[in-house]
Write a structure and sequence with these properties.
By secondary structure, the protein is of the alpha/beta class. It contains 13 helices and 12 strands. It has helices spanning 15-24, 69-83, 137-144, 148-152, 182-191, 202-211, 235-238, 241-257, 277-289, 298-305, 320-333, 337-350, 357-368, and strands spanning 8-12, 29-30, 41-49, 55-64, 87-96, 107-115, 119-122, 125-128, 131-134, 167-174, 197-199, 217-226. The strands form 2 sheets. A 5-stranded mixed beta barrel has the order 5-11-10-6-12, surrounded by 4 helices. The longest helix is centred in the last third of the chain and has 17 residues, at 241-257. It starts with 7 loop residues before the first strand and ends with a helix. Mean pLDDT is 88; it is low at 267-271.
């Protein structure tokens, strides 16, 4: 499915969150349905100007997951398989913690997700076994450098009360329970004193992202619709929901438009950066040294790279050295970017931490980025 590869996948648990994101993106189109996928996907191409004045376009897909960790994990896994994103963003509303200075309508950006669902019940009570998911460092850095007035200008929904929203970066609590009891939250805050808020899907989305073969970067942005207390269902608090959805969507699109994420190739037919002779020779040398071209391993190697043995004459009869050279030449002459990347990542795992590791990283960067 390389023809479907995108830059950003945005997961929204609720319909109102989905609508808020779609309203901020240009020329949104609904994808045609797939026989092997029950999800509905919305596509948008977002123009971006980078710091050096060059321009590009991010390919973005948005989908609805439903509430809770399990539905969110399932939707994320399906979407990752379908679209192979570089990054997964979870966007929506959440409860903020007033004791952390958070106010209604503010933005919460997670630097880590603290999943509290795994617990052991004993005669002494519940023992929480926290699972922590860290945010993608590139997107976190981009967020730390995003000025508040940039995303604030994108907000179009009327604010229920006077004031200006601000953003907070920190750990956010995640679990299936809608927690609005101060004593319960205080227990978690005792273990994690820097908590900024609580929500219900991040544990599932982050887990699905980290366990995917593609390992896309995970990041979460939330607008504060309540303060995770007993007033959550009152009219005074409920009127903040649409504003909080808009705030989260505004921050998300402004973050992407800031152009702090390199543009990766999302088409298998897009131009490929040139590799010089020394780099191609290095790939041949490492493939030989990896022993993966031995007769017993070469069929597995072909499968892992994504080629068929019939593409190389006398595939099973060639000497190990000759086969290594034939494979690299085949991939390079045909400019098979994805398969070249597969080969490089295989070799990177074989020679991780060795003298060739940095050179392999440089080759991978050439193939990935324009």
């Amino acid at each position: 499915m390389t023809e479907n590869k995108i830059n950003f996948l945005i997961i929204t648990p609720l319909k109102e969150e989905l609508d808020a994101v779609l309203n901020k993106l240009p020329k949104v189109q609904e994808s045609s349905p797939f026989h092997d996928d029950i999800r509905t996907y919305y596509l948008s191409n977002l123009p971006v100007i980078f710091a050096d004045g060059t321009t590009g376009t991010y390919r973005i897909v948005v989908t609805l997951s439903g509430m809770g960790r399990v539905p969110a994990a399932n939707a994320t896994s399906d979407a990752i398989r379908r679209w192979q994103p570089d990054y997964v963003l979870l966007v929506g509303i959440a409860g903020g913690f007033a004791n952390a200075g958070v106010k209604l309508g503010d933005v919460l950006v997670s630097d880590q997700i603290v999943d509290y669902e795994s617990q052991k019940t004993t005669s002494d009570g519940h023992q929480v076994r926290y699972e922590v998911h860290r945010a993608d460092q590139r997107l976190l850095g981009a967020s730390q450098n995003l000025r508040d007035n940039v995303w604030q200008q994108k907000i179009t929904t009327a604010r229920p009360e006077n004031g200006v929203p601000v953003s907070y970066i920190g750990p956010i609590l995640s679990g299936d329970k809608s927690v609005a009891v101060g004593e319960v939250l205080a227990g978690y805050a005792k273990d994690w004193p820097k908590l900024k808020g609580v929500e219900m899907e991040a544990g599932g989305v982050a887990s699905a992202s980290f366990q995917a073969v593609q390992r896309p970067g995970f990041f979460m942005i939330r607008g504060v619709s309540d303060l995770a207390d007993e007033d959550e269902k009152t009219y005074e608090v409920q009127q903040w929901r649409s504003y909080a959805c808009d705030v989260a969507a505004s921050y998300t699109v402004a973050l992407l438009e800031s152009g702090r994420v390199p543009l990766t190739n999302t088409s298998p037919n897009s131009p490929i950066n040139e590799l010089d002779k020394s780099e191609l020779n290095l790939l041949k040398k490492l493939l030989i040294e990896s022993k993966r071209t031995s007769v017993l391993k070469r069929e597995i190697l072909a499968t892992d790279i994504g080629i068929k043995s019939g593409e190389i004459p006398q595939f099973m009869l060639l000497a190990d050295d000759d086969l290594a050279k034939q494979i690299v030449d085949l991939l390079w002459k045909r400019r098979l970017r994805e398969k070249l990347l597969n080969l490089c990542e295989i070799l990177q795992s074989d020679f991780e931490g060795g003298e060739y590791s940095s050179k392999l990283e440089g080759i991978i960067a050439k193939l990935k980025y324009q």
